């Protein structure tokens, strides 16, 4: 395998202070140097991204008095992909008095992550979670409430406590609008400069410090370099590498990948989360997949026909010919097994050829029993909006015919490696939200991404970045600086190249094909030979891309084809690394299932002996090999166990 | 199915545009409207023509990026539906479908079907927030909120900021968008201290941006994909007049 | 925001679309009240010349001796005039703003003619502004006819009753009134609802329905109530 990568020095987080885990955050905040208010005005910070992480960070740093420059590719900060989050946000408030606590949230998250996350970070996340709810309520986020006027909670993602706060099916929207409004307030106050429809295409590193970014104005095509004393990336996940995912169309890896090429380590790229309940693909034209809230699994029963190629109308198929495979295989948790388990099981039955719907790529989620049990009205009250959404898209009435669902790429646990301060391996580069790798290990629990995004942005980064900025302001740099000029020049050349190829295939056709490769070989189930094959396929496809992609128009205009081309080009490089990472990690953990590493009854089998580490990859150069740096994971507060949902 | 598209093409904000016809065969009724445009764009690209520019991101009806005037109606013929949620099965074989961008003086057309909507952000900047600096928040349960108030606030807060209300309003008014934010924050105890200032400042910005006044025609609420009700405009009027009568302080 | 700043903002806000709409609503209501009184007066025509002229005269002797002859009437006229002026000025300003906001094209700014009437527009909501102008022209014509009596179709007279009857014996006079009243009816059908909403009275979808029903009733009552006398005269039920 070493023909694919080389092994470099191990790395370790040096920022988490020693001492009991419950005191680390206080200690760190105390030890971190502060910047006095007068000096903050002289210090500038670039924040790329306006999602939960970016908007909350930009607003908070602006309030603190730093001069903030904030970017997003949409026409308004409010449209960041966080807006689409549905289910809810976790917090260890223990309002239900059901035995929840900071330590339990910490424990659940580490276990849910299948013991591949860093204890110190996760513990802090749990501590901060309670402050998030207070902050959001103060901003006017309209969380669901009970008649008594107090906040309501639901349970989520197979944990035994009710700690999820929600705003109907639109929690992400409401949280983001809260952060967005705080951000707009700072923009009005002149503390934050906003750059919408600006895409970051390169990171500027000067004298080994992150000092700026190269951006393209997506309306005029103007390419310019913006400078600051520190750069924060809050650019979200890279699920769109698979082309079809529940992510927004514009989600991309460009920002983090460019930083990776400039020296930032990329951790656990193969850790992707596949959500079990999405609406199946309806045809080649499909542009993205729609998530159906997990909550459906509380009352819906998942099944496929027992017989291969049983083409009967599901309503005609009698009980004895149905296979409720989750209930059969996991009597204890039944339809409520964790996401990765449910998704894999669905794939297995479809691979056996028992899948339903177009292309046999789906399983039934049946509410007939629920309707019989609770009555149609009760079901409508609970899931009405989801049923309507499903009917709008599929033109099938889920009250009559069982829903068809299939797993889809949903979230990426991997991301740029960061230390306890959320600083990447390039000094002055901070990474927050889904863009970093920090808190979810090999699998993320439901309602924990919103928590992490806001924790990072409101409370963690604003406290840790001071320690770095205390050394600033750093010496002035501008376009004349050779390293900066080179970065901008490189961006210009790349764009010229893309526009000059003028081949015979569209960007989307390449993206679709890349997505199929990743889905097939680096999706729900992976194995050595498949991954090797994928790496070859991706390399060929990438080569073809650079010789025969067709990008119309010019740079000096609003050119959406050009935008997509740049993103897809980076997805190729990332996709290859994802496969290499998946190949090297010869164990199954969380969302990463290696068929070579499973128990006799097809459950994921971890190998803590050899793989209890974070795989942080260094860029090996254009034709070089990626370099693997290992961060060993120690568990002093949670005992490593094999997950079982039997 | 076969359809004829007539689409507004405009090179950039200075150029003057016109409607251009495209013939599409074998369109699947399972496609979404935007996927139909994707398909057309693939074809145009291969023919070396400039694909049609249009905004979209989530394609789930929540981000508010998409928005087309389809056959004269903002977000198309289906009620409570964003353009990205519109399915081709809402049309018939052989239909002629006319597609245009939002039109209003503050919504400059940047290219084809893409418009400038930063005026909405500036309206929020003028006061569409509750001042709550990070870290200063009291315990969340310190102030209970009656469920009815919380629900009304939520109903208002679901506005996705798409701008369809403006596109549909014969007066080019953004009153529904404005009313929704005013109602959201005015329904909560946390929103009371800044209530009067907020109403006056946001309305001031609304007028400054060049949006028209509301004459209660109701097109906005009819096309609003999330069904923001018309009474939220009355709430806006109520709060503004109240603020004026109270002397705003 | 500092209060001083806020007070400036307030003065500026008196020119805001919401404040202008409120002004239109209030003046609109005043005009409606006048119309109702006026309509009531007009119906006295069925009680014969004496009653009608007495009523007309009483308008002038109202409030005497505290007020000079015609004083009350003049006060009323001033209020009316002010209302109409404010109402029209505000209307014109809002109209101009709406035109600017829509590139001068209003609801006709889209090429597609598939939805000329929008998703749900009432005819009344279209005719508000031109209807208003029709009303304005009518009022002028009407004052010249029945108040100042400079134009006197069918023959001038000292007695308002006679003027009225003379006038309405001619079909085109009645027709002109009918047209104006139709315009007024539509104006009020939308105007009354809008006025309430503009003042913040629309509190729920249910309320929205009720306010619209109320507006329709007012519009009907006023239009019909005004139409009866001329028609009656034309058909010779009153002579
Ligand atoms: C359908 C769906 C439902 C979900 N539901 C839940 C849930 O119920 N609970 C939960 O906890 N999590 C949920 N998640 C996950 C969660 O929504 C995301 O992980 C989280 O919102 C990520 O936030 P973020 O701020 O890190 O990034 P994002 O919200 O993705 O924001 C990325 C920002 O970066 C900007 N950006 C990206 N690239 C560039 C570039 N190159 N140049 C300039 N700007 C750039 C974008 O404009 C955007 O502003 C869900 C995800 C999906 C897809
Ligand atoms: C008998 C005389 C009139 C009555 C009773 C009347 C009544 C009303 C009322 C109640 C409204 C609703 C106000 C609101 O929406 O807040 C209104 C609106 C309007 N009126 Fe009149 N009106 C009269 C005469 C006129 C005249 C002479 C004009 C001349 C242009 C006019 C133009 C308008 C316009 C344009 C509107 C719409 C206002 C807006 O922009 O919302 N009206 N009218
Ligand atoms: C067909 C129905 C109407 C009849 C028969 C009628 C009759 C009259 C008469 C006889 C007068 C003179 C009163 C006097 O000088 O003593 C008068 C005055 C007036 N009418 Fe009418 N009118 C009618 C409709 C209207 C309408 C629709 C309006 C307004 C939109 C209107 C507005 C006025 C005004 C403003 C005056 C002047 C009041 C004054 O003396 O200051 N009238 N009308
Ligand atoms: S009010 Fe409705 S139409 Fe207007 S912006 Fe908000 S969501 Fe869009
Ligand atoms: S359509 Fe326009 S006029 Fe008012 S009610 Fe809606 S804003
Ligand atoms: S693309 Fe997000 S709402 Fe349509």
Spell out the blueprint of helices and strands:
The complex is a heterotrimer of chains A (646), B (249) and C (239).
Chain A: E1 6-7, H1 21-31, H2 37-40, E2 44-48, H3 52-64, E3 67-71, E4 89-90, H4 102-112, H5 119-139, E5 164-165, H6 171-188, E6 192-195, E7 198-206, E8 209-217, E9 223-227, E10 230-233, H7 254-261, E11 266-267, E12 272-278, E13 301-305, E14 322-323, H8 325-329, H9 339-351, E15 363-366, H10 368-374, H11 376-394, E16 403-412, E17 415-416, E18 429-431, H12 449-469, H13 482-501, H14 507-521, H15 528-548, H16 560-584, H17 608-611, E19 613-618, E20 627-632
Helix pairs in contact in A: 1-5, 3-6, 3-12, 4-5, 5-12, 10-11, 14-15, 14-16, 15-16
Chain B: E1 3-9, E2 18-24, H1 33-46, E3 69-70, E4 73-74, E5 96-100, E6 109-111, E7 114-115, H2 118-125, H3 147-157, H4 164-168, H5 175-186, H6 195-208, H7 219-223, H8 231-245
Parallel strand pairs in B: 1-5
Antiparallel strand pairs in B: 1-2, 3-4, 3-5, 6-7
Helix pairs in contact in B: 2-6, 3-5, 5-6, 5-8, 6-8
Chain C: H1 3-13, H2 17-43, H3 48-61, H4 71-101, H5 123-147, H6 160-168, H7 171-198, H8 205-234
Helix pairs in contact in C: 2-4, 2-7, 2-8, 5-7, 7-8
The complex binds flavin-adenine dinucleotide (FAD), protoporphyrin IX containing FE (HEM) (2 copies), iron/sulfur cluster, FE3-S4 cluster and FE2/S2 (inorganic) cluster.
Provide a descriptive summary of the structure in words.
The complex is a heterotrimer of chains A (646), B (249) and C (239). Chain A has 646 residues and is an alpha/beta fold. Helices cover 37% and strands 15% of the residues of chain A. Chain A has helices at residues 21-31, 37-40, 52-64, 102-112, 119-139, 171-188, 254-261, 325-329, 339-351, 368-374, 376-394, 449-469, 482-501, 507-521, 528-548, 560-584, 608-611; strands spanning 6-7, 44-48, 67-71, 89-90, 164-165, 192-195, 198-206, 209-217, 223-227, 230-233, 266-267, 272-278, 301-305, 322-323, 363-366, 403-412, 415-416, 429-431, 613-618, 627-632. The two termini of chain A are 35 Å apart. Helices cover 34% and strands 11% of the residues of chain B. Chain B is built from eight helices and seven strands. Chain B has helices at 33-46, 118-125, 147-157, 164-168, 175-186, 195-208, 219-223, 231-245, and strands at 3-9, 18-24, 69-70, 73-74, 96-100, 109-111, 114-115. The longest helix of chain B is centred in the last third of the chain and has 15 residues, at 231-245. With 239 residues, chain C is mostly helical. Helix content of chain C is 73%, strand content 0%. In chain C, 32% of the residues are buried. The chains are: A alpha/beta (646), B alpha+beta (249), C mainly alpha (239). Chains in contact: A-B, B-C. The interface between B and C is large, with 56 and 53 residues. The site of one protoporphyrin IX containing FE has 25 residues of chain C, from helix 2, helix 4, helix 5 and helix 7.
